[in-house]
Amino acid sequence: MVPSEDAAPRLDVDQILADPGVRIVVCCGAGGVGKTTTAAALALRAAERHGRRTVVLTIDPARRLAQSLGLSELDNTPRQVKGIDVEDSGGELHAMMLDMKRTFDDVVLQHTDPAKAAEIFANPFYQAMSSTFAGTQEYMAMEKLGQLHARGEWDLIVVDTPPSRSALDFLDAPARLSRFLDGRMLRLLLAPARSGGRSMFSFVTASFGMFSKVVQKVIGAQLLTDLSGFVAALDSMFGGFRQRAEQTYRILQARETAFLLVAAPEPDAVREAAYFAGRLRSERMPLAGLVLNRVHRPAVPALGADDSLAAADRLERAGGHAGTAEVLRAHAALAQQAERERRVAARFTAEFPGVPAVSVTAQPADVHDVDGLRTIGAAVSDR
Question: Order of strands across the sheet with 156-163?
Answer without folding.
Answer: 79-80, 92-97, 53-58, 156-163, 24-29, 257-263, 287-295, 357-361
